[in-house]
Design brief:
Number of strands: 0
Radius of gyration: 20 Å
Order of helices and strands: HHHHHHHHHHHHH
Helix content: over 70%
Oligomer: single chain
Number of domains: 1
Strand content: under 5%
Number of helices: 13
Largest sheet: none
């Protein structure tokens, strides 16, 4: 019963995460009208860090744990958000959005392979089949969108591929770190390093070009401010917490499949809000993605009633299906992992 409740919350977190990221593409378009991608990342993680400090601070005990485990958490943060966004930003300079979307759609497959190799996760035939169906759906969705362009740029494809591998690596390592750190602790660390890294890049870049005084200029635009608030607070802070929470309860291979839903959300958000056309091929791809995600989620139900030995991690230790990874320790600041408050790539 306890496992079922935790799994339900984890699936809800993964679904909410996909919904928020799906709408983030609209806000990226708005922000790009005022600033370049690297400056957007700097402001994005500035607001993420401020919101994390105000509403998701892990407490003194949690902060001590973060300091003592900073080196252990560094590889996860190096992969996501730092490497992921750097490779994606420069990859999109050479590859089209259709190519990037199709490559990014392979993240569940990369995650599945890495999770099997590094975590010992097991995936049945149904899960593998539905994962592949979702990946095919993403390819159809992006290839079938109106105005899809294929540049066939090798460097662009390699950079976007590195971005996808970075996200897959994060999924696996964050799952592993859930043994030792709570979702809130990992989230705070990730957003703090993202703020320091991208903020430093923006300052150095503007200082080198003699435009340091222009760094704050985009903040004068209300539309830009709204966009980076969404991208920072919701699409960086809240989604990283939801992802870390889901990864602490479910196998990495199952959590990653929900990322494909963000493409479906973005497709229909563009149609509803920007009057973009949805070709039949894109609709077929969206249907395949939905079928794949539902199939992966339902294939997990078959293993829920199988007893799995979990290592004792205190009074709150519970077993998770298909693996013997322990659930994360409760938040030191609140006694249990709770969703981060959202008030105020």
């Amino acid at each position: 019963m306890m496992n079922t409740r935790h799994s339900g919350r984890a699936y809800t977190a993964a679904l909410t995460n996909a919904l928020i990221i799906g709408f983030s593409f609209l806000f990226v378009k708005i922000a790009l009208q005022t600033a370049d991608p690297l400056d957007i990342l700097a402001y994005r993680f500035l607001f993420a860090f401020l919101a994390a400090t105000l509403f998701a601070f892990p407490g003194r005990t949690g902060l001590r744990r973060i300091r003592s485990g900073a080196f252990k958490m560094l590889p996860v943060t190096a992969l996501y958000p730092i490497a992921f966004f750097v490779f994606q930003t420069f990859g999109l300079l050479y590859a089209s959005s259709a190519e990037a979307g199709m490559i990014q759609g392979a993240v569940p497959v990369f995650t599945l392979i890495l999770a099997m190799l590094l975590l010992g996760e097991r995936a049945g035939r149904l899960q593998k089949a539905f994962t592949l169906l979702s990946v095919i759906g993403v390819a159809c969705l992006f290839a079938g969108r109106e105005g899809a362009v294929f540049s066939a740029s090798l460097i662009g494809i390699l950079l976007v591929l590195c971005s996808a591998l970075s996200q897959a690596g994060y999924n696996v390592l964050a799952r592993k770190l859930s043994r030792s750190f709570s979702p809130k602790e990992l989230t705070y660390y990730m957003n703090t390093l993202g703020f320091l890294c991208f903020g430093l890049i923006a300052i150095i870049r503007h200082a080198a070009s003699g435009t340091l005084s222009q760094l704050a200029a985009p903040l004068g635009s209300p539309s830009f401010l709204l966009a980076v608030l969404y991208l920072g607070v919701l699409s960086s802070l809240v989604t990283s917490y939801l992802s870390n929470y889901a990864l602490s309860r479910l196998e990495a291979s199952r959590v990653s499949i929900f990322g494909s839903l963000s493409a479906v959300v973005a497709l229909f958000a563009g149609a509803l809000l920007l009057n973009e056309q949805i070709p039949a091929a894109a609709l077929l791809g969206a249907a395949a993605i939905l079928a794949g995600v539902i199939g992966v989620a339902l294939s997990g139900q078959r293993t829920k009633n199988k007893p799995v030995q979990a290592e004792d991690h205190g009074a709150n230790a519970v077993s998770t299906p298909s693996t013997d990874l322990r659930t994360p320790r409760p938040d030191s600041s609140s006694g249990d992992a709770k969703p981060v408050s959202a008030h105020g790539d």
